[in-house]
Design a protein that fits this description.
Number of domains: 1
Largest sheet: none
CATH topology: Arc Repressor Mutant, subunit A
CATH superfamily: Homeodomain-like
CATH architecture: Orthogonal Bundle
Strand content: under 5%
Order of helices and strands: HHHH
CATH class: Mainly Alpha
Number of strands: 0
Number of helices: 4
Distance between the termini: 20 Å
Length: about 70
């Protein structure tokens, strides 16, 4: 759905680094270098970003249930 605001394990804010992370990956950076540049060093936070599946665009295609 939408990237969580905080890491579920440690509580660190991670939502603000998701889009810059994707931008760095598009530029050809490896994920490890992208995490280094963004200051994400805990495995739990890396897991939250890497394992996120963005489904909001797919779900918006369907009408709301009444």
């Amino acid at each position: 759905m939408i990237i969580p605001i905080r890491c579920f394990s440690c509580g660190k804010l991670i939502a603000h680094v998701y889009q810059p992370y994707l931008d760095l990956l598009e530029k050809g950076e490896s994920s490890e270098i992208a995490f280094e540049k963004l200051g994400i060093d805990r495995f739990c936070c890396k897991r939250m970003i890497v394992a996120h599946v963005d489904l909001i665009d797919d779900l918006l295609k369907f009408p709301r249930l009444q």
